[in-house]
Design a protein that fits this description.
Shape: elongated
Low-confidence stretches: none
Number of strands: 3
Strand order of the largest sheet: 1-2-3
C-alpha cells in the first residue's frame, strides 16, 4: 500500500519521510490541498528506476533493429566487444 503524506507533513517531518524512503526503497506520495502533487523517493531508488528505463529503451532498440533486419553475426559482435575491452 502506498505511503501518502500531505505537503505539510513533508515540511514538518522531512527526516521521518527521508528515513522511510531510504530504508524501504519505496516512494512517498505527497498531496497538496487533498490532491496528488509529488512522488518523493531516495536517490538510490531514483537511479535504479532510471537504470531500468535505460535498459528497457535499449531492449526496445534491439527489438526494433531485429525487426528491421539490422543485425550483425555473433562472431563480429564478440570481436568488437573484445577489441573494446582490450582498448584496441
Amino acid at each position: 500500500m502506498p505511503k501518502i503524506k500531505s505537503s505539510t507533513d513533508l515540511r514538518n517531518n522531512y527526516n521521518e519521510i527521508s528515513k522511510f524512503c531510504n530504508e524501504s526503497k519505496e516512494p512517498v506520495f505527497i498531496t497538496k490541498n487533498g490532491q496528488g502533487d509529488l512522488a518523493v523517493m531516495s536517490i538510490d531508488t531514483y537511479e535504479m528506476l532510471n537504470g531500468k528505463l535505460e535498459l528497457y529503451r535499449l531492449l526496445d532498440e534491439g527489438r526494433t533493429a531485429v525487426k528491421e533486419d539490422r543485425k550483425l553475426p555473433m562472431n563480429d559482435v564478440v570481436k568488437d566487444l573484445l577489441r573494446e575491452i582490450n582498448n584496441e
